[in-house]
Design goal:
This protein is an alpha+beta fold. Helix content is 46%, strand content 13%. It contains 12 helices and 8 strands. The strands form 2 sheets. A 4-stranded mixed sheet has the order 1-4-5-8. A 4-stranded antiparallel sheet has the order 2-3-7-6, with no helix packed on it. 44% of the residues are buried.
Length: 411
Amino acid sequence: MPAHPPDILRLRHKLLLLAGRTMDFDFTAEQNRFREELREFLKAEVPVEKQEVFGHLTEEQYQFGRDINRKLAEQGWLAIGWPKEHGGGGKGPIEQGILNEDLGYWRVPKSGSIGLGIVGPAIMVFGTEDQKDRYLSPIAKGEVEYCQGFSEPNVGSDLGSLELQAERDGDEYVLNGSKMFTSYAFHADYMYLLARTDPQAQKHRGISLFIADLKTPGIDLSPLPYINGEMAAQTTFDNVRLPLSCLIGEENRGWYHAMTTLDYERSGLWRYANVRRVFDDFSTFCQDSAPDGGQPLADHPLVRHQLARRRLGMETWKLLCWNVAWMQSSGAVPNAEASIAFLYGSEERLRFAEMAMEVLGPYATLKNGSPMAPILGNIEGIHREAMHLHGAGTTEIHRNIIAQRGLGMPR
């Protein structure tokens, strides 16, 4: 019996094709100029002491990230991939990817990502002209923050079973229920949410998409701390009244609208680069020093071997992310490919964090603020964050997407 049955080999070959279609690895001269200008800007505006530390995001750092976004907007860069008529830079996914990668590598505290990557594209495709005029410009200028209301206390990966009710009452919708794991909720101005508008319809067909002002009476936020140091919320809706103008797209078609626009910005380049910066800092630390003042860690063959393996992993992750951006720039919808990049990145981040903890030993457990903590305590922080494997979908959900939408396997 062969070591690999033919059907397994065919699946493996198809996976490789999904993850590695022919891609142009070169930027244009104009794109390279943009990257150089952006890096000069970040070098001047983002000193080390202002950069985010994994697992240690402070209010001051978050506000600094908002300030950087506004300055990027003044340069026309924050929404560089958006059409000019919507307040963007008129470029495309490659330029947006360059921006996201460099922001991640310079550890600029993240803000505005829900509005820029998800809400804005949804409004461009499904919104009315009035909604485009009202919502898009503030997002492109970095003036507002959005949070996403999808998960619920009893509903996580199976979003089609969501329970938040939105009942039509004249020229308003009345919302009752709650949302869970609402990241950015305490900084957000608006929530981009899904609610059930037809309880009698089949699971995915009675759901609608809304934007809710979080100052609306009846909305209440309860703190929900994450293991990575961030503060999310459980959001409760008690007879919350939203005008009809808050409905995005068609009533009862919200599930399909949301799933379409989730594919717009899913390259994951910010996330990759954020981790890659810690890996690069860790590699330099291993080559130059040792926590106990003895022989540099990289002098040990096993440490060099582990660093080489993780460097290959980081390069693979980078290419998977850029493959998504390239497909978007080519007009393709990178559904399974985005899940490949996300899943691989989640697992590579954990592999790196575990390796670094083993190499540094007890020193790796020291948090930011300890004088003995290597590289500002980022190893302790990234190890905590690497345990958070369910952001943007659990690993099981992404495996299902790859299997069903990428490989054509049955449910």
